[in-house]
Structures are given as structure tokens and as C-alpha cells.
Fold this sequence. Notes:
Number of strands of chain A: 13
Oligomer: homodimer
Distance between the termini of chain A: 74 Å
Largest interface: A-B, 54 and 54 residues
Shape of chain A: elongated
Radius of gyration of chain A: 26 Å
Helix content of chain A: 40-55%
Amino acid sequence: MATLCGVDTARPRKPTLDTVAGVVGVSRATVSNAYNRPDQLSAALRERILAAALELGYAGPDPVARSLATRSSAAVGFMLGQPLTAAFSDPAVSVFLDGLASTVDGRDHCLVLMPGNETGGPRPETVARAQADVFVAYSLPDDAPALAAVRARGLPMVVVDQPVLAGAARVEVDDTGGARSAAEHLLLLGHRHFGVLTFALRPGGRTGPVDERRRTEASFRVTRDRLAGYLDVLAAAGITGVPIWEASGSRRELGRAGARWLLEQDPRPTALLCASDELAFGALRAVRDAGLTTPDDVSVTGFDDVPDAKHADPPLTTVRQPLAEKGRRAGELALRLLDGESPGGPIRVPVELVLRASTRPPR
Amino acid sequence: MATLCGVDTARPRKPTLDTVAGVVGVSRATVSNAYNRPDQLSAALRERILAAALELGYAGPDPVARSLATRSSAAVGFMLGQPLTAAFSDPAVSVFLDGLASTVDGRDHCLVLMPGNETGGPRPETVARAQADVFVAYSLPDDAPALAAVRARGLPMVVVDQPVLAGAARVEVDDTGGARSAAEHLLLLGHRHFGVLTFALRPGGRTGPVDERRRTEASFRVTRDRLAGYLDVLAAAGITGVPIWEASGSRRELGRAGARWLLEQDPRPTALLCASDELAFGALRAVRDAGLTTPDDVSVTGFDDVPDAKHADPPLTTVRQPLAEKGRRAGELALRLLDGESPGGPIRVPVELVLRASTRPPR
DNA sequence: CAGCATGACTGAAGCGCTTCAGATCCGTCC
DNA sequence: GGACGGATCTGAAGCGCTTCAGTCATGCTG
């Protein structure tokens, strides 16, 4: 705001707590208290200190030094099993992240994003150097090196959409159950010919049909569980050999391409079970591309119930999971862990089949 | 990996550099060198040190202490003028962010996300406490408090899609020019009746028609410029009184609602100029909702050329800006600033009108 | 008026690491 | 054989802040 003395050129270096203390003529501890514990000094003195700070261009205690002294960096690290683009363009992730970020921001904490790579997750070195005091892992592959890196640092962690990990807090959704309910719904409607459209089973960006082995050895728990949910129910009804297409990510375009392949199978499926709404949107499109209609010719179900699902054409039957709440829960859990509280048992958010217009009995 | 002595219960506290130094019998400086300057000690000794560290469960130098000593936190802060959800679900932002994040990660830096709020941008206190040594501001309102907060800390900054800010590096795109080219294209096609669909002019989430005053006083530079580009060209052709609808964000659903209103105007527009592709997607949908077709009844243009644009139905005529490149450039600039290099002049990435099937002469 | 609680402020010990000017040792070179 | 140089390793001075046990008045109680 104000310049100290007109000449600004040779300001020797950034002012510190000591600078301010020196100018005001108080101890460093007092200046610190002016910022962190206003009740520890008289209001008048505090005013003087703050005024001097402004005059000197002191922007408040240095966050890094503060972190070192308090042993807390007021940040939560976020690790994702996919490249960031995917993260951002996938509503399931972005809505989650928003819930997480706002929870965390309410406590004046920042979110530190660590880009994932091909191995699915941030590099261990990145994790080792990240300034955060708790980590949230979102859908990393089961064997992600980043997980070990967090453990090595001895920092608390909450895992989301991932297998149980000793010592980590956890928020989870019943992916298997949700998937089962979608498959059961379709079965009840009378469908006998299915196609399954899924996103990545492992890091690496493969696209194509999925065989039994790849399916059961998938390293993304979510994918594995949703697929299992679909297929188990179908198998129980005597339906096997269901064609499965793996898209490398949860994106409309990839879903469209996958659904195209599924619709070319013989017999042509009358119902498409998709592992996410985004994929389902692509499937809807592919059905139209093929000159067919949903739900008359082909029923389609999604998973997530992202905001667009109810506005799709036709509105999508899908399995709802409360994404924002999931983010908030994860954030709260992270904050509790920070306070040294025990995380308690895993938090389970509910899933629910939402019936809309994209499904109906086969012709 | 290994436990020190079977009994793990009473490990007094986390090991530090000193712990390792003590065990190996070398000085602290040497252990530090083992991690940061392998050439400063013999390979054999380094091995011994690393082995001991592993044995002790030492995960490497503490990032915070390291930052304090080196006066660098190896992180770049990212500030956004909207709530995070918007950020994540808007491909224009997410693709940018991906470019930014990967650049930054290449240098072992993290990305610190600072959620924006209603005032458009992170709270100043959040900025004051964020551990980053350079900030990237993306489309904040011109008067965002966060900008002043960065300045107060004396940290370098790169601004994107924002007005010139003394001392800040800058990457920009010619929003006005891009918008002009879209309007000119439509004019050339013979259109005379237009509607304009825009995202927020100011923070706060308003939705509705826009009058002249609100338009010219917009605090988001991007919005202001794109609108100005559209309207100036039209005005020069003698077309005034063009209806404008402001959506609170750049989302399909909001675009759909806005376009509905625009299509109800009299005379009904034969062309819709949208400030983003996402809004344009919504407009495409609204045209269909109204029982009309694009481009036969109504032409639609977007802005950005996000990946979905070419797959839209019909493929969208739009103004392309290289989003990922923008992110990368911003990242490189930030990194240069970190190295103390001068940022050089503003980086300007090109825009280009991409003609596709959503525009044609009016009937 | 002694005794004591209270409020306001200070001193100094860290927090865990980096870095740079040496100290040491040893093989070389002339 | 003594000076020199390179390779290794060490000591100690910070980096900027928090915090806790005090110190010192001051006002209040009985």
C-alpha cells in the first residue's frame, strides 16, 4: 500500500516477523501473537503491529516457516489414478473434487493436486515432496506406488473407491450392489441379450474387448466391482458370454465407439449396461447412429447419476451415487485425521437405482 | 519395509536427517547430500546411507523443512474465478489445467488449487497461507482480492485470460478477434437476426437478459471481450438491439435454457453466437427442443473448440483456441518466473475460426 | 498491607533441512 | 620430497516462525 520512504529500490529483502518486531519495538513472539492469538495482547498494540506490518509490506507469517514450526502444512494432497484431463472432464470426479475442495477450504486448507501418470497415480517422488499432511487417494490402481509413498511418510490417508488399506480411512460406495440392481432391473424387464461397456480395467489406456482374465485381474477396484455386479447377476440368470468393451476412459466419445462395437455383435444386445453415465451418453448416441432408438430398440443404463443424466435424450436410467457428498465425506474424514481423531469405520454412501426413460422391455 | 527390531510400538518419533546421520555415523550434511547431490559423496557411502534410511523408515528430507531452507516450495498455486465444480466440468478449464499440471509436474512441482468463491477467486487469507512460489490466475474478475493478496506476498504471477497487470506475466488469446471472426462469418452467410448466449459477466451467478450497462461493466475480461467482438461486428453492419442472455456458468444445461429464451424473441434469431462450446451444445439442444433444426433453421457457433465440438450433432462451427497449449505456456512461464528469468512479453496463442456443419445461410 | 490471581509481553528453544567455507586425506607432479 | 589439487566429508550458521515457561506490573481480596 504505502511505500516506506518514497525510494523503494533498495528494499533489502522481504520483511519478516523480526523486521516488524524491531520497528514496533516488541518481541517477535508478540508479533506472532498479533496474527495467531489476538487474545494474547492488547487490542491497541495489535493495531500498531498490524499497521506497521502494512507499512513495511509484510504480508503475514510465511506459510512455510509456519508449517515447519507447527508441523502442519494446512493442505490435503489429492491423488488420482488417471491423468488430470480425465479427472477434470469426468463429472464423477469433478463433482467429487468440488465437494472435497469446499470442505477443505472451509478450514483454510488448500488442495494439492498430484498429477497421475501411466502407472496410474502420482509418481512416488512427487508424493515424497508434496507439502500436505493428509492424502486423499481417489480410485488408484490397487498396487499404485503412490500408496506406498504415503505410507513411507507416515501420513494419514483416506482412500476413496478403493480396496481396504490397513490404517487408511475410507469412503466407499457399494459398486457391486449398484451394478447388480441395474442388471436385475433389465432382467426383470425381460432382456436376454446384453452388452457391457466399461472404462479402464488397468492403467495404460487400452481399448477393446475384454476377456475373462483381464476382467478378473483388473487393478481398478471400481471397474472390477461394477463389472462383477453386472456379470454375476446375468450369470445367475443363465446368461453368459456377454460381450464387454473396455474404453480407456470414461468419456462420451469412447463410449460411443465402444457401443458401436457392441451393437455389431450377434445377437445384437437389446440392453447396454454402462459403467458410467458418460459412457452411457456415448452409447445413447451410438444407438442413434445405428438408426435405432432408445429405449425401443436398445435399453441403456448408466452409473453415477451425474447432473446431465436426467437431461439426456432420453433421460437415463442409472445408479445414483451421491458424488458431492462423497467428496465432502472424504474431506471431513481427512480433516478428522488431521485432528488426530480416529477415522472410525469406513463411511458408506448409498447407491440407488434411478428409473428413467432409457430402459423398457425389449420388443 | 523392514522393522527396526520387531517391536515397533514405541518408535519415539519420525526419523529425521539427524537420526539417519547418527546411525550411519556421518554428519547431517552428508546425509542431505546423499539425497540432493549424489556427486558430493562416494557411491558406497551413499548406498549405506540410503539403506539405513530405509531401515529406519526415513522417507527422505521433509518437504516443509526443505522448502524453508531453500526458500522454494516447489509448487505453483492455481487460482480460479469460479467455484471448482465449474472449473472441472468446463472442458475449457480442465484441458487448460491438464496442460498446466503436466508442465509443472515435469519439474517435480505440485499444483496447489485454491477454490474460488462468490466474489470470484480465492479468499485473500487462503492466498496468504498457500505454499506456492508462483501463482497462476485464470480468468479472475478484474478486481479480485486474490490478485492483491499475491502482490502483497511479493510473489510472481502469471495471469491468463485477464487484463494486463503490472509485473505479471501473461498468456492471452485474442478473444475479441476470435469473436469478430465468428460474427463476420455469419454475416457473410447472410444472417440478419442474431441472438447471443454468454456465460457470467460478473461473479455471483446471475442468469437472464443482459443490458448495455451490465455488458460494458462486466468484470470478467473474457466475457467482455467476446461479447464486444460479436456486437461490434454486428453493429458495424447496422444490426443493433441484439438480445443477449447471460448464463451463470458455461454449462450445457444453462445454455439450453438461455437459447430457449433467445429463440422466443421476435424476430426469432436465425443465428446464435455462443461464448463457449458448452453453451453452444446447449443451444443445439434447444433448437431441437423447439422443433427446429441446425443449421437449416438456426445456425449456431461456439467458442473454444473443445474436443466434443467436432462430434456434436451437427459438428460445431467454432473459434478454436489451443487450450492445452495455453496451459502449457502458462506453466512454462510460471517455471521461468521461478528461475528468476524475465517473463518476456505476453504470450499470445492463436485463435482460428473452424468451419463445420452448424452454420449455413439462412433460409 | 501481605498475598495472589490476572493480563501483557518476552526469551529462548526448537521445527528439519540446506549450504558453504573449511578440514582431511591421499595420490601426483615436478 | 614437498607443494598441489581433487575427492570426501564436516561444522555451523541460518531459513522464519511457534510456543511455553517465565517475568513484571497491576489490581483485587481479605
